[in-house]
Amino acid sequence: MATLYITVPGARVEKDYKRLIVVKDDEVLIRIPLFRVDQVVLVGSVSITTQAMQSLLLEGKGLTIINQSGRLLGRLVSPTLKNIGLRQKQYELGQNESFCLEISKRFIYGKLRNEATMVARMRRSHPQIDGAISKKLHQALKQVKTAGSLADLRGIEGRAARLYFSAFRLALDQSWNFGNRSHHPPEDEINALLGLAYTLLHENMITSLEVVGLDPYEGYLHADKYGRPALALDLMEEFRHIIADSVVLHLVNRSILSPSDFERAGQGYHLKSQAMRKFFKAYQQRLQTEVIHPTYKTRLSYQKCFEVQARMLRKVIEGEIQVYVPFITR
Fold first, then answer.
1. What is the reported pLDDT for 97?
2. Structure pTM?
């Protein structure tokens, strides 16, 4: 099943028997059977009828609303049966400093390994990227293993991120501007693309954690981020670059998008409607790309790998296995 992204300004999602339809000015833009959709994402000035929302809830489908700049505004999900025992263990471990540090090391180790792999890939076609960056990232991996606190770990992660983005910047088509990482608002077009991709990836992680019975809000590395789904932020670290950044590089370097596809919105940028559809198509294609899972040696889509990692995390929390193994690409 797929995510249905609705990006046409003024469009409305309605229910028609066992289908969802998207209409604008009495013209039907999309018809799709409900069983083929796992969630609906509304982008910008798009609406949905009560009947369509009720159908999504009854079928256990998610509804996500983001603004034109890619910022999450809210989510609608049906009530789920909560595994109280599992969540109690999850919450208890959140108070265990030793557990939080060790599991966080695993998340960051996976992130840095994938950063190093991405830099190596980028250097193949962009030899101007300093080879010392990969060496420094591998040195940072050793520091992760010996970090004595979450503060130390976050410091290592931050330094590694600056190294990684110095390479990422050089791998971009030079007709694009990319300054420092900025969030709300994104200060350039590349930051706008990254922010949108990270929002979607975060939503994927929330869904995967909910499927396996974990609370997306009770995290271990990002536990200090009040009111945000911290465990989803934890889990997305190892996938951040190989999913979100890969999509951005693909769209930019293959000229699928251009700087003219953006509009200035206040102090930030956002994609125009037609370009937004190209973005969502590329993102969905990336999620459906099949790879060999590095731990279980099974061919799975990236989207399925999210759930596999969430289930592994659940097994660690329940004490069924001792070590969480991050998803590491080659």
1. 95
2. 0.88
